[in-house]
Amino acid sequence: MTRKTDEFMVRYRSNPDVLTQQVEDDATVIVHLGTNQIYELNGTAGRLWDLLSQGCTPAEAAERLGQEYDVEKAQLMGEIERMMQSLAAQGLVVADAA
């Protein structure tokens, strides 16, 4: 099993200092109270955030997103990997210890 595969099997949760609000039909706003940074996610990234919030691993979220969107699996996995790296780097998600 590769490290990338391992990371896709980890469950994440939002940082307790993060508030999320869906705005309009297609955007999600995330506010990190610890840094006062505000992030806006487009519809697809917001859907990933929703799936992670529901307890899906990135791999499970990729499976669901693959069913919902017309995108090649390799492209989808790459985009999810980049998104997860960004969310973690900004302190918006943390690995669930459970």
Task: Describe the SSE topology.
Elements: H1 3-8, E1 12-14, E2 18-23, E3 27-32, E4 37-41, H2 43-53, H3 58-68, H4 73-89, E5 93-95
Antiparallel strand pairs: 1-5, 2-3, 3-4
Helix pairs in contact: 2-3, 3-4
Instruction: Decide which structural class fits the backbone.
Output: alpha+beta
Principal-axes geometry comes out as globular
The structural domain count equals 1
Radius of gyration: 13 Å
Low-pLDDT segments, ≥5 res: none
Number of helices: 4
Major sheet: arrangement of strands? 2-3-4
Written description of the protein model:
- Strand 2 and strand 3 form a beta hairpin.
- 17% of the residues are buried.
- It contains four helices and five strands.
- The longest helix has 17 residues.
- It is α+β, with helices and mostly antiparallel strands and 98 residues long.
- It is globular.
- It has one domain.
- The two termini are 21 Å apart.
